[in-house]
Amino acid sequence: MSSSDSSAVDAVITVRTGDVKGGGTDGNVYIALHDVKGNRTRDVLLDVWWKNDFEAGSLDTFQVSALILPHDLKEIEIWRDDFLKIDDWFVEVITVELPGKPKFVFPVQRWVNAGERLFLTQYDSCLPQFEQHPDQRTRLLNAKRQQYQYQQNEGLPVQIKETPRDEHFSNAHRFDILKKKILLLAQSKIVNMTSDKWLSLDDLKNVYQYSLGPPKGMAYWKEDLNFGEQRLMGCNPNIFKLCRKIPENFGVTAEMVEPFLEGLSLEDALGSKRVYMVDLTILGGNIPKIVSLHHFPQLCAPYSLLFVNKDKDLMPVAIQLFPTKGPDNPVFLPSDPPYTWMIAKMWYNMADCSFHQSCTHLGLTHLIIGSCATCTHRQLSASHPMFRLMAPHFLYLLAINTLALKTLVCPGGWIDESMHMGRLGLFDIIKKVWKDWRMDVQGTLPAELANRGVDDVEALPNYPYRDDALPIWHAINRYVRKVVEATYDVPAKITEDHELQAWARELSAPQADGGCGIKGVPGGGKFTTVDEIVATVTPIIFISSVGHAAANFAQYDEYGFPPNYPAFMHGEPPKTKDPLTEQDIISALPNKSHTLNIMVITKILSERATQPLGDFEKQYMYDPLGVKALEEFRQELDAISKESTERDKARKTSYPYLNPSEIPNAISI
């Protein structure tokens, strides 16, 4: 008797097929139910004769008769026969409703291959030491290790070798950057922009009357206040730091900068936490040699010095474009000729955006979380509670990383075409930063802020990135702790969880030993406490959501108007303080077609492709404790969102990027 018979209904079974590429099946699908005493129902063919069941993304309902168990339901058994062997099926979730019983939920989130049977308990969330079908769990995890293999590139975070089919976009058109570029060009009515140079700044501004709209940076790009705000709330809001002492190679003297310190001596300003700096000298060394292969001018490796004035604004007071003091490497000041100071800020910003695109964006969000996601799939079963906790924050990540590396960061791709450093320079910068990056410092927001000396809200009261990110960090931390404490209520569950220990070990093991090589993983690769697990999972979720949002969604507002945050400049950095003109600024800018390429790609990259934080596209946790923790997390995010909105109203310049309602769950663009 099939599920389409019209006898008395003993069970209502719903099956949601996953919305993944090739996820549907035309094979014959069967189910059987097991009770707590080991009794088993008959095999039930799930089929409604008049419709095409199990299409990708579909929800199918089956009313089944003659399906009675003498005791409470314990688990289900699901399989498909050998008909159409290559037609594998991706199942999202199955529910079973029995008369007088609450609905039973069985998340599957796996492929069901022809001839294979899956046994699933309600909620499918348990530690490996309590698994009732250990052979099945081991078999499935071993299969995932074959699919999720590492690609090692010397000096870079490990990445996925080949994108598994589980990760492929079901709606790939939404993520096709090159097709989007063509469409946006057509919509903007500026397809025919030539390779001519801009005639004037007004000539450049006129292009924004079309559909792309004016980026935020266009309005105030000349102002020193805007330059200071870029350090606090631009694409790179997490690299400036408290200056306690002027670096030896930074040629700043008290005589130079004291006219801008509102009557303070340089020594007093340093002692009262009113002086901050950015040190981008890491961009020096061999990077200019790599860049020269692209026939581009030398990339700056600058210092900048900033001062918190009486209005609590962060203002630039000095810029040195190269690391070594010398007569042809002057310290530029706000009192220099206006266009000379302006072009010094532009060359500085080009170095800043080179670091942003290399590290803040690609290296320290996309690539690091790519390592973590791959390791998670390799070492934690889909049934593991920690997998279910983290999985929503890996959605589309591995696919978008593969796509970006093949289209934007490939030889001759957007990075080579549009950015001064080129792709080789980009990878070299990542390598320099990655070798010292630690999860427990740079990856842990409170520690990262303290490490830079920017956690003092009295000394630095107007820091939107910090003020918006910290409440979300603490909310994520509390959410993670609730789930971890519910899972590991006694220490023995941690030490006996071999999947968790393998995950910790592989995250921290050197790449030469087959690991991810992530430094500063709490516990050093062996977890013994709840705190260590929480301190590892929290940064992964935070970087996947908040960290990427901060690095990504300001891109069009910053890059979209090239003088504001230039990705590329012509000519050479200034070596004197000789007066310059507006024409010197125009001559340094990328030409019209180059500008358009930067505008369009950063516009696309600034789009949000997934739902807001906590509002998951796919539900992974169904167990009551996890569901309760998630609901409380959502409520806390709603309150934070309201507070963020009110805080933003009081700012001179809006910073909307880290309102929880604007932060996607995962890195998907």
Structure description:
With 669 residues, this protein is of the alpha+beta class. Among the domains are: 114 residues, Lipoxygenase-1; 276 residues, Lipoxygenase-1, domain 5 (Up-down Bundle), CATH 1.20.245. Helices cover 39% and strands 12% of the residues. It is built from 22 helices and 15 strands. It has a 5-stranded antiparallel sheet with strand order 11-12-13-14-15, with helices on one face. It has a 4-stranded antiparallel sheet with strand order 4-1-6-7, with no helix packed on it. The radius of gyration is 28 Å and the shape is elongated. The two termini are 48 Å apart.
From the structure above, extract its key features.
Lipoxygenase-1, Lipoxygenase-1, domain 5, five-stranded antiparallel beta sheet, four-stranded antiparallel beta sheet, 15 strands, elongated, dioxygenase, metal-binding
How would you briefly describe this protein structure?
The protein has 669 residues and is an alpha+beta fold. It has helices at residues 134-147, 177-188, 201-206, 217-220, 224-233, 254-257, 266-271, 287-292, 338-379, 385-390, 397-407, 414-418, 422-434, 445-452, 464-487, 491-495, 498-508, 530-552, 555-559, 582-588, 592-605, 624-649, and strands at 11-17, 29-35, 44-45, 59-64, 73-80, 89-97, 104-112, 117-121, 150-151, 159-160, 241-242, 275-279, 303-308, 314-320, 331-332. Among the domains are: 11-124, Sandwich (Lipoxygenase-1); 351-559 and 596-662, Lipoxygenase-1, domain 5 (Up-down Bundle).
